[in-house]
Amino acid sequence: MANVEHGRPAGPAGAVTGRTSVLRAGLWLIAAVLAARQLVAVLSTPRGERLTDLETWIGPHGVLHVKDSLYDAPDRFTGTPFSGLVLKPFSRAAEQALGWGWTFGSLALVVALGLVAARALPQPVSRRTSLLAAPVAISLLMLSLPVRNAFTTGQTSIIPVLLVLLACFTARDERASGLLIGVAAALQPTVLLFAPLLWFTGRRRAAVSSAVTFAAATALAWAAMPHDSWTYWIHHLAGAGLSTTPAATANQSLHGMLLRLGVEGPLEITLFALLSVAVAVLGLRRAVTYARDGQLLLAVAITGCVAVAVSPTTWQHQLLWVLLAVVGRVGKRASDRYMWPVLVVLALSLPAKMMLPEMTFLVPVRDNIVLIAALAAACVVPFLSRTSPLYATPVPTEYAAPVPARWSWVPLVPVWRRVAARPNLILELLLIRVGYSAYQQVRLAATGGTISGGRATAEAHGRQIHSIEQFLHIDVEHWVNHTVFHQAPWLTDFFNFYYTSFHFVVPLSVLGVLYVRRPADYRWARSALGFATVLALIGFWAFPLAPPRLMPGLGFIDTVHGVQDFSKPNYGTLTQLTNQYAAMPSLHFGWSLWCGVVIVVLSRRWWMKALGLVHPLCTVSAIVATGNHWVLDAVGGATVVGAGFFLTYVLQGPRARTVTAEARKTDDGPARVVDGAVVGRGVGSG
Questions:
Q1: Whether the Cβ atoms of residue 601 and residue 514 lie closer than 8 Å to each other
Q2: 3-state DSSP: the chain helix, strand, coil percent, rounded to 5?
């Protein structure tokens, strides 16, 4: 069969290699930029705010030292006594020199970790994947919260992960492998769980060596620092009591979760012990199974996730094991393969508040989201076996038949084809939530500087917009605002309700109907909406604009928020929910116009098309009557929506056409029809 890539004949092998080389260079550039950004972020942090977990070693003259016990200071050292013994040789270094060395050393460790993890991917992998894996792995590590936290606080948590990977994938001798894991366990005790993994996978000499090395390192630290060793292992129960706030959300362990749920005392200790044993037994059994299946990196990730859960305290910098679980393959369909990796990457890269909305019943999930991911990887997620026929060849993605474009150069991104199958609902909801959270954050940040400067700039832009409208004789906002408020109070109430309620309800409803009834059109409409929203964010950032209701001296009535006190210097600036100077373009009108366009284009009945136009008409009336937008804001909203549809067309090509029963054949012969769209089987993973 001819080699076909996304429906088009592939070029010569050299062309494919050339594209891979360019892509690889781009990914390495991204990894380098992320690394440089991390270095700048750490080294530019004030001295008292970086390497905070080493503050117990800072002397009166800025020289690091170890005095008395590691665990007596208010901000107590939380590592093992062996960690303190290893770090003692650095105690004579000046603080600034150690800070630079620690930062660049941590960067080197992250790069080494990414390279080893990329080489350890379960086979078979394509040559293209093997070439691109290293920069992708390093980039994901740089973006993860555990690595960023370890950089800032000055923790050694990257070292145990790297030692375990070196032991499993580079050490040729079993004793050397056990030595590396034993040292890692001396730094992070729950890493000793890798000894059973080694034992039950036939590497018994390595298992014994790891246990002996751990015991020897611990005994060495006990001999050198008996008081600290007694404090850590006995008084604080293997470090469990070192933290003053074990119930903090940063402690993503079963112990921390139970405390956050309000379980305390003997009951909590009993539940923690029982759950830990259950998770350890089930997780290690799964790890052994996948190791025997040839997926050793996945087995390492599962064992690390078990270590995360059963440790009394697992702080953010110790959660790197969970990120390794992205190598597991889940799902029968090619389109489902992205769900698990995306969930893990988002959980390990973004604050939990960005992933879940502020709802009371979701708080327990939000506060334990990384622990839930670790428990899922260790005990629940049905990773595919390499013996499964779906492991290498999942069910192909259904693509809509391509539609000829007006211009020959469209689509600009031919690999971005029209998928006809319904996308994964969990992943879709998650991406919508994260996208909206990012939209909120950018919108809040787009004030143009300080409160006074942002207000002055926004009001100056407001006067400019008002002058342009006066020149064009379209400055109807004041007349509409006062006429509706004074002459039709019922209409004011209606517009207030419409403005505050329908902005989200209608677009989400349209997306929901398309998702269920028209999957291919859902993807087309969602892409256009996403592009329009991104362009609007650029407008908020570049052109902060005061709406009519926040323009002093013009006499507008704020019918939604009430009377503004213009004498206060901080009126109308950022709140916890919105940036009130994000008026140009109007996404209230833009999103409503998007709804209208989608309904008009996809509806088959004239009355539904007419109904689709009612929403943008009511919205533009509401935003003007309530004093929340200028007329030109609506023009701006229409512009970004038009640009969103145009970008979708240019990049992806025309949307998939619906067909009748008589037109179910393509030029290549019969094709199936999925939800009204002519489709064909995609090649590869899609």
A1: no
A2: 65, 5, 30
Contact between 552 and 566 (Cβ < 8 Å): yes
User: Is a pLDDT exceeding 50 seen at residue 7?
Assistant: no
Cα atoms found within 13 Å of the Cα of residue 500, Cβ hemisphere only: 9
Predicted model pTM: 0.77
Q: What is the pLDDT of residue 91?
A: 60
- Convert the pLDDT of each residue in 545-586 to its tens digit: 888 888 887 888 888 766 655 555 455 444 444 667 788 899
Per-domain residue ranges for the chain? 23-67+76-392, 425-652
639 confidence band (pLDDT: 50, 70, 90): very high
Give the Cα separation of 127 and 565 in Å (integer): 65
- CA 31 distance to own-chain centroid: 17
For residue 28 the two structure tokens come to 């390495």
Find out whether 299 and 288 touch, Cβ atoms under 8 Å.
yes
With CA atoms as reference, report the closest residue to 632 among 503, 451, 466, 500.
466
- Residue 178: count of CB within 10 angstroms of its CB: 27
Q: Following CA atoms 339, 340, 345, 350 in sequence, which dihedral angle do they give, to the nearest 10 degrees?
A: 70
Helix or strand (DSSP H, E) at 635? helix 631-652
Answer yes or no: are the C-beta atoms of 154 and 52 closer than 8 Å: yes
Q: Extract the tokens encoding 422.
A: 């319904």
Helix (H, G, I), strand (E, B) or coil at 447: coil
Distance, in Å, from the CA atom of 670 to the CA atom of 77, rounded to the nearest integer, reads 69
Write down the pLDDT at residue 682: 47
- Identify the three-state secondary structure at position 395: strand
Q: How far apart are CA 602 and CA 214, in angstroms?
A: 66
Q: At what angle do helices 489-517 and 519-542 cross, to 10 degrees?
A: 130
Residue 9 phi, psi (nearest 5): -60, 135
Q: Name the average pLDDT for the chain.
A: 81
Local structure of 673: helix, strand or coil: strand
DSSP string, 251-295: --SHHHHHHHTT--HHHHHHHHHHHHHHHHHHHHHHHHHHHHTT-
